[in-house]
Structures are given as structure tokens and as C-alpha cells.
Amino acid sequence: MYSVTHSLRAFLLVASGVLWSISNAEAESCSGTNCKIGVLFKGTYLEDTCDVVINNGSSTETVVLPTLSTATLKSNGAEAGSVSFTILLKGCPVKKTVSLWFASNDADSATGNMVNATGSEYSNNVQLRLRNAAGSQMIINDRNSVQDYIIPDAGGDISHDYQAMYYANSAGGVTPGLVNAMASINLIYR
């Protein structure tokens, strides 16, 4: 609401300046008492957006995957260590479909996964893959790889489950080390 109000105020100040400029310019060309100057006012009203809650916590949570042996990820494309997490949408606008997708600055466009952080303490050749409850991969940075939340006429909280897992991205196997990746949750309202 602040940004909408702020934008509208800024526009009104600009519109006032334009009005002043137009009225001065028109005053010279207008000799009668029946001068009319049109003024256009614009603004934007935004609906409320959904609150995002991860694992019944907050909107900034950590999903912890299990500790595994590198032997579980020996072959390229192997997946292991799946852990479930829930994303709940609360207070959404009613009668909408809200499509959730994931984005990350550190994504592999070939696999659609998040890549691991780099450094001597981090594991090599491992990525993190996300799947929705139906088992379909949630391709990172793909606005078409979504999980839809259908908000009914009466409103209400809607949740979906997801899985995060390790993914081997090399035929040479995964090296021991830490795994750390981050993604943002993005919502499209339709």
C-alpha cells in the first residue's frame, strides 16, 4: 500500500506541475472566461498477495537434507536423500490460481537443478533437485515449471508438498563436502 500511495502522490505532484505549465500556456491563448483544461489522473490498485509459509515456520526457512555417503551418488543422474517440505499460501486473493515457481542465480540450465556453492569445503559434482508432490521436477528458473494453488471462492489456506534431493551431475561421482544452495519462491497470480 505504501508504494501505491507513494507512486500516486508522485504522479499527482507531476500532474500538478503539468497542470500549472498547461494553465500558464493556455492562459496566454485563452481570452474568454470559459477556458477548460483537461487533466488525466491515473493510479494503480493492487490486490493483496499471498503470505508464504514454509514447513509451518516463516517465509525464510532452511530445508535440511540428510547426511549421505558419496557411495549413494556414484552414477551421473543418480538421486538420493529426498526430504519433504511444505509450502503453504495464506491470505491469498479469492477466486485466483496462484502458480508457484522457483528461481536461483545458481542454476544449471541443462539439468534444471540448483548448483552447489563452490569452495574447498563444498562437495563437487552434486546439485539439488526439487520435485512437486506428483513427482514432477520443478525446473529452476522456468516460469512454466509451476505448481498451481487454486484459491476457492471462500478463500482459505492452501498447501502443497515438495521434495528436495541430492543429484549427481558427473559420471565420476560426488566428492565429500558441504552442500548449500538457495532458491527464491515466485508467485504468478491469474
UniProtKB/TrEMBL annotation:
Entry keywords, A to Z: Signal
Signal peptide (residue range): 1-27
Pfam families to which the protein is assigned, alphabetical: Fimbrial (PF00419)
InterPro entries assigned to the protein according to its UniProt record, in alphabetical order: Adhesion_dom_fimbrial (IPR000259), Adhesion_dom_fimbrial_sf (IPR036937), Adhesion_dom_sf (IPR008966), Bact_Fimbrial_Adh_Pro (IPR050263)
Domain of life: Bacteria
GO (cellular component) term, any one: pilus
SUPFAM superfamilies: Bacterial adhesins
Residue ranges of every copy of the Fimbrial-type adhesion domain listed in the record: 41-189
A Gene Ontology BP annotation from the UniProt entry: cell adhesion involved in single-species biofilm formation
Stated name of the protein: Type 1 fimbrial protein
Lineage: Bacteria, Pseudomonadati, Pseudomonadota, Gammaproteobacteria, Enterobacterales
